[in-house]
Amino acid sequence: MRFEGPLRKMSTIYGENIRYSLRIGEDLLFMNRLIGSQIRMSFKGNHTCFCGQLVPEVYRQNFCRDCFFTKPEASPTIMKPELSKAHLGIEERDLEFEKRLQLQPHYVYLAKTDRIKVGVTRNTQMPYRWMDQGAKSAAILLEVPNRYLAGEAEVALKDHFVDKTSWQAMLKDLPTDEDLMEAIQRAADVLPENLKQYLYQDSKEWHFNYPVQHQIEKVKSISFKTEGDALEGELWGIRGQYLITSAGVFNVRSHTGHMVELEVL
Ligand SMILES: [Zn+2]
After folding, report:
1. pLDDT tens-digit profile of 19-59?
2. Whether residue 234 sits in one domain with residue 104
3. Where in the sequence is the domain holding 246, given as residue range(s)?
4. What is the structure's pLDDT at 18?
5. Could you tell me if 175 and 218 lie in one domain?
6. CA neighbours within 13 Å on the CB side: how many for 265?
7. What is the pLDDT of residues 202-250, one digit of tens each?
8. In the listed set 165, 184, 207, which residue is the last one of a domain according to the structure?
9. Would you state the pLDDT for residue 56?
10. What is the pTM of this model?
């Protein structure tokens, strides 16, 4: 079987075991079924930006240079919600887009991998965001009416929790033994007073089981830089947006737009 097209991040379905699917060109692959198979994925040497342009190189975060500096999807508030201004009616790149994105309910959550981290997501992205991160478990702390307030809470909590975790430790499945619901309580106690009204009632701990057949002890990362670069090995499992293979691990999301050919041998 042979598939060809640009890479997109894998879609997930939450359940007792997480199910992954990957769209390549016209085909939708149910990735869990490929676990245990030999796969070969090779890079064709160019990318499609989300604007649809075929470009020889991406600039940053999988955008072409033009998109990175002009499109609202690539604006700095995407990474730093505390910079949001749509609630004040102030435009950054495209006020209508920014209003749609920012003026909707957001969650501030704690998620556990090798450490407990704080993060922000739109409520429609939950629980997908956590599965994309490869979190072992997660719980909602706050539900706020807009992105700015979520950013404000995240900044306040960064003194107490990290906002990044180690993907190597995540892939080696080395979770912290800190208690998540205790951390939620601790976070609630240290929140600025104006945010306490948004505390999420009946927060519960979500657990995530990834389809991993063979646990790795060493992390060897494979990435595609030049045409012909390839990943070839037995697919051992999937966690977050990583394919875990006998040849090494491959981050599908960070290769968004890369034109690839995938063979199931
Ligand atoms: Zn572009």
Report:
1. 999 999 999 999 999 999 999 999 999 899 988 888 888 88
2. no
3. 2-61+212-264
4. 98
5. no
6. 9
7. 899 999 999 999 999 999 999 999 999 999 999 999 999 999 999 999 9
8. 207
9. 80
10. 0.93
Q: Are residues 46 and 166 in the same domain?
A: no
Same domain, 90 and 111: yes
Whole-number Å distance, alpha carbon 75 to ligand 1 midpoint, is 13
Q: How far is the CA of 259 from the centre of ligand 1 (A)?
A: 15
For the chain, the domain total comes to 2
Q: Are 260 and 8 in contact (CB under 8 A)?
A: no
For ligand 1, an ion, list residues with CB under 5 A: 49, 51, 64, 67
Contact at 8 Å (CB) between 122 and 109? Answer: no
User: Are 48 and 82 contained in the same domain?
Assistant: no
